[in-house]
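Item description
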Amino acid sequence: MTCIAGLLCVAGPAEAKKKVKTEGLDIECTGKKGKKITGTLFSISPTARTITVQEGTAKRTLRVASNCEISTPEKTDAELIDLKLGKKVRVRYFVNKFKTEVACSIAPAK
């Protein structure tokens, strides 16, 4: 870094940093609910805001949007921690620009 009289500092090429696009935990649904999966709830991680759904022998892990609509047989306005492992669920999701599958609604399978 080159500084002139302690007032103006300019970063040289060695100090230049590329901005990296990252994806935080606070992902929201924006109306895109183009895909769906139905299967058994295999795992839930409230801190990472992810769920894993098993459909046949395949398992798919999805991020859960902060505004995801979650319902259970007992509650229509449920939270992620209200979901129970081993239950059949229907998940509507979209794929964001980071190629992450983001759940917008989680409901009991019919």
